[in-house]
Structures are given as C-alpha cells and as structure tokens.
Amino acid sequence: MQDCEFSFCIGFDLYREPVEQQKDLTAKPPINDSEAMQGIFTNKQRLRIYWYMLSKGDPSGVREIQRALGLSSPSVAHHHLEKLREIGVVGQDEYGRYVLVKQVEVGILQGFSRVGRFMLPRFSFYAVFFSTLLGFYILRYTESLNVFAVLFSGAAASVSWYETLRSWKNRPF
Fold it and tell me: Is 139 among the domain residues?
C-alpha cells in the first residue's frame, strides 16, 4: 500500500507524496526588508497614501483616503493599503480603519522628519540653525563683524533654505 495523505489511494492518478515531503512551489524566496520597502514605495499613489497617513496620525478609512487624495475609486485606495499592510507598514483596527504601524524612511521620505503631526524637510533644521546663528552674531558683534564669518554663515543659511524649499516642493503630497 502506498504512503499518502489520503486514507486510501486508488491508482496512479491520486498518488501524492507524503505531506512531510511535499514541496511548496508557490513559496517565494525571502526578500530583504529594505528591498521590499523600496519596491513598495516606488508607486507614487502608495507613497502619497503613506504620507497622508503619516501626517494625519489617526486611523483612516478607505473612502476617507480616497476622497482626501482624489483617487479614482475606493478600490484603488484599498489595493494600495493592502500592499502596505502586506509588508507591515499599516494595520487595521477593530473598526476596519487603517492605522500606521511602522514608520519607514525610504526614497524621498528620508529627507523629512516628523514633528508632531507635521512632516518637515530635514534641511529646515539646518536653515533655522544657521539663520539664527547669523542673526545672533550680527546683533552681538555689530561693531566688530568678521566678514568671513558673516559670508560663511550667510552661505550656509542660503544653501540650507534653498534645499529646504526644493525638498518641500518635491514632497509626495
């Protein structure tokens, strides 16, 4: 008698390998987390949905996301939310709303920091720092200003403000 997973085996058509020896042909090789994240966030709509959920902070329903982002239908929002749920970035609460579970920094998101509910370009912190430093220096040492210190601080502040505005203009949402 053949060793198979059924209680009986008839002929060759129903023969199967024992359960322990069966190979899962549908299983994919494990993917590195960073590779999966990069792949998921190459889609602009998915990135916009993630940005919306990150900046909102509260659980969101499919229709709410669809309306807020101007997507063509709730099924488009649902598809992208399910992709985000598959990699563990979002989850669902007991009411079926989607909630952010994990904050990731990939692609353009690496240039932003979350402060409360706001997403600010990281260069804005440097811009404020150099601008404040320049302002205090000018106020404190009005009589004996060093031209190189003023030029260096002014250049650093200008470059930082330029990069801040550039990254704000290119934000996904």
Answer: yes
pLDDT tens digits for range 56-112: 878 888 999 999 888 888 898 899 898 888 878 888 888 888 988 877 766 666 677
108: closest CA among 43, 159, 26?
Answer: 43
State the total domains in the chain.
2
Domain extent at residue 148: 113-169
**DSSP category for residue 143:** T
- Report the chain's mean pLDDT, rounded to a whole number: 76
**pTM over 0.90, yes/no:** no
| Phi-psi domain of 72 (left: phi exceeds 0; alpha: psi -120 through 50; beta: other) | alpha
Residue 100 is encoded by which pair of tokens?
């952010």
Verify that 70 and 122 share a domain, yes or no.
no
39 and 91 together in one domain: yes
**How do strand 118-121 and strand 98-100 relate by DSSP bridges?**
unpaired
